[in-house]
Design goal:
Blueprint: E1 9-10, E2 14-15, H1 16-37, E3 49-59, E4 62-63, H2 64-67, E5 75-78, E6 81-100, E7 106-128, E8 131-134, E9 137-138, E10 144-148, E11 153-164
Antiparallel strand pairs: 1-2, 3-7, 3-11, 4-7, 5-6, 6-7, 7-8, 8-9, 10-11
Length: 166
Amino acid sequence: MKLVDKKGFLFNRLHVIDGFVLSVVVIGLIIFAASYLKGGEIEVKPPGEKVMVKATFLSFPYREEFLETYQVGDILAKDKSFLNGKVTDTKILDTYISLVDNQGNEVTDVHPFLKRALVTVEVELEREEPIIFFKGAEMVVNENHFLTTMTSDLSFKLESYEIIGE
């Protein structure tokens, strides 16, 4: 008696593909039963307290016309909803470029096309001691965040933040 015959049956009774599907289903049921019977209640975490935060973001180098889309008073957005916050100040800054000239000297000057923006926002965020969350991510200085408004969505680096109104 062969293990698999010419028609693909295992031990002349069970087709190989059927056996594979059946074993996947059995393993899935075992995993589900083990996790279900493990016990423990599902923990629903209450939302953290809301705090007003003043944060300053520095953009990466972009063309100036992109950075000018951030205007004072723009409302901040997250996914398809708005946050309780707005842009309070914007400053366009020069970006510097360093190159070496033909004599081997370093030459530093303002980049002719790229600028940076320093954008200050005031926004109500969720805090779970000691962590403050901005759009679902922990606020950490020098971390990258997308600063999204109705007209813009560019990548910025968090320069600083402080809790206001406490």
